[in-house]
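Quick question, first post here. What does this chain look like in 3D?
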Amino acid sequence: MNSDLQTIGWVAAALVTAMVVALITTPVVKSLAFRVGAVDVPKDNRRMHDHPIPRMGGLAIFFGFLLSVLIYVELTPELTGMLLGGVIIVVLGIFDDIYALGAKFKLMVQIAAALVAVLSGNVIEVLSNPNVFSSDLWWELGWLAYPVTIIWIVAITNAVNLIDGLDGLACGVSTISSLTMLVISLAVADGPVAVIMAALAGGCIGFLPYNLNPAKIFMGDTGSTFLGFILAVMSIQGLFKFYTIISFAVPFLMLGLPIFDTCFAFIRRIAHGQSPMHPDRSHVHHRLIDMGFNQKQAVAVLYIISAILGLCAVVLTTSGALKAMMLLLALCAAGAVSARIFLVNNEKKKQDGEEEHP
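> Answer (accepted):
Ran it through. Tokens below.
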């Protein structure tokens, strides 16, 4: 019991430290972004803002996270490799926020950062078998462990980056994912992972007041790719290591929103004969805006979806697959009814407005 209370104390301390550091350093980073030219100027219809806004705010999240981890977590080879890879990602993001680097160059640097983390011991060595009817409960990946892990890290890094299209969206979703892994880590008594996730969540929470609509600063690629990188590597340390079907499903539930949006974007672009990296205005958040939601409503909807998936991941870990499936179906049904009511009311308001002003 004392050990559990001590772990919760470290978790709370890590979260508060990272939050305070991010909260204090964000205005400084904002001034720095203006000075170095890291400013997002709206130049196409994918942008949801109508005036220049500084980016590179993810630097404040990084400062809060790094300081908190160095204070409260004992450095291991795996953690050191993750931090070094994270530094590479942050430096890449800073230059990208200033100079808008090419996609291929960024991909190569992201692979290098993932390789640093993998060679330090962050490897998906065993993958649970998704076929529940098979007698083999898990797959030993062997030499495939290295390319599979690198693909996972790079994919999640870019997935979080791709959903960074509305004020506070990527930061809030990353906060929910971090808190999900934090709760799961506490449930399975994995203290170090819980403290690291608390530090990441704290950094995001400290930055959110500046990033919520109307945003005063964007976290840019500096923040979105860093958050994706840390979530990807920590999912290897905290989730993939369980030799059960849970380990296959939980990371995909916890990161379900960015994974779905990225897969859907790639399929859509390839079907249209475009490059998978070609930017467009058909992401989930764009579609919600086109359906009639404003920015705050769209972000709230996606927060709720992410929280539902995170809650299902926690229930799956602690109570089993059947209860998690029942919870997911019930919440999806409630969400579908709520969305239908909103859209009907929204359409009715539009029709009433057209009748009043023909």
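The first helix runs from residue 2 to 36.
The chain has a mean pLDDT of 84.
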